[in-house]
Specification:
The protein has a single domain, classed as Glycosidases (TIM Barrel, Alpha-Beta Barrel). It is 38% helix and 14% strand. It has helices at residues 24-27, 40-45, 63-77, 88-91, 101-116, 132-135, 144-160, 173-183, 193-214, 240-263, 268-273, 287-292, 357-369, 397-415, 458-469; strands at residues 10-11, 17-21, 81-85, 120-126, 166-171, 223-228, 233-235, 298-302, 307-311, 338-340, 375-379, 420-426, 445-447, 454-456, 471-472. The strands form 4 sheets. Strands 2-3-4-5-6-8-11-12 form an 8-stranded parallel beta barrel. Helix 14 (397-415) links the parallel strand 11 and strand 12. Bound molecules: 5-hydroxymethyl-3,4-dihydroxypiperidine. GO terms for molecular function: beta-glucosidase activity.
Length: 475
Amino acid sequence: MSTPAGPGALQFPPGFLWGTATASYQIEGAFDEDGRGPSIWDTFSHTPGKVQDGDTGDVAVDHYHRYRDDVALMGELGVHAYRFSVAWPRIVPAASGAVEQRGLDFYSRLVDELLGKGIAPVATLYHWDLPQWLEDADGWGNRDTAYRFAEYAAEVARVLGDRVHTWTTLNEPWCSAFLGYGSGVHAPGRTETETSLRAAHHLNLAHGLALSAIAPHVSADSQKSVTLNLHHVRPATDSPADIDAARRVDAVANRVFLGPMLSGEYPADLFADTEAITDWGFVQEGDLAAISATPVTLLGINYYNPTLVRAAEGERAADAFDGHGNGAGTPWPGCEGVEFVQQPGPYTAMGWPVDESGLYDLLQRVSKDYPSLPLAITENGSAWEDEVSADGEVHDPQRVDYLSRHLSAAHRAIADGVDLRGYFVWSLLDNFEWAYGYSKRFGIVRVDYDTQQRTPKDSFKLYQQVVAQNALPQA
Ligand code: IFM
């Protein structure tokens, strides 16, 4: 039952799923406890120069030990669902392939704690923490990793299948493939253009094999999902060259995953754009059928900002202003000659523009391309230079504004016919922001990294109201 909303509030449909999201390596810590093996992010963060200030996820926000308190916070927030990820190296720590029961037990306890508070568990099976033993055998460059992923997924589903509301195979495979193996700004830090495309295919394969592998173990009414960080790509002008630049980026950012996963085919233009890099011979007979064999019933979309591109003049190499492109290699194979254009501000602490119109447009586009597929926003949020005020509170008006703008865009999309079922704010807690370490705070709850004290920010209070009223209040 929702509490009544004030005049002018933007009311969401009954049953709209309000949630919050985190990921294992970003919050858990306990990097060597209960048999957990190393992941590529342990190796990467312990390599000097890879992560800002030498930060690591060794302790993170100690969620592994504090999960009960964190679930209690979610209870206070009132959310209906919690999107977390399972750390593969906790479940299959070493090359022997033996399953670590203590790892499974942790997630089982977490799920029970959530259910005890009436919060639906939404489990992501892979949020970037590949076991190091798999990377030692070429990681996502190796087709075999997809099969190992399906085996691991089945183990998790066997234990949690009766209690998990939504199963998500992968989080943002674009980042895994193109930041991990292309630009090298993410673990494992490789800068091999051909491998990045191969990795994208193996991630697609992993998704399909895993959905089929978990099917016998999960309850029939659970949702089967994948979360993509779809880029809303806009051409800077309506010149044919700029429109073609946007098409190229759309192919390797979005359709490289949407095509195989949802329609069982790769886009022909992607093959043409990348023909100088690979002949895609790693796509074997039967792969596309395997990728799309078990249908996705809910598509998760992560949205932070739109992407503006144009055809570069002269010799300018691809130069990304979206925080993704500054490694030694390119995260944009097939986009040679495309220039990423800085958009007007305001900018978050990540340097990302605040533009909720991109969310509206993206939802419209996906809904038109896949009219019968329910959607959820599985991440949306912003990092700011938060401070603790003299009153001990964290007043974060910019995050409140960001949240309000994006919720209002989501509301407008629903009013205009998009089948949007839920929204998950990123993130519940300040946490380890990958190559930025702890320097960027995305949480609606502040974490003091010295004491691990949690302090709900003003944005937490706004979101609490939104959830309670099933509506965005108007100021
Ligand atoms: O923190 C990340 C998250 O792990 C994946 N999506 C984007 C977030 C903000 O960069």
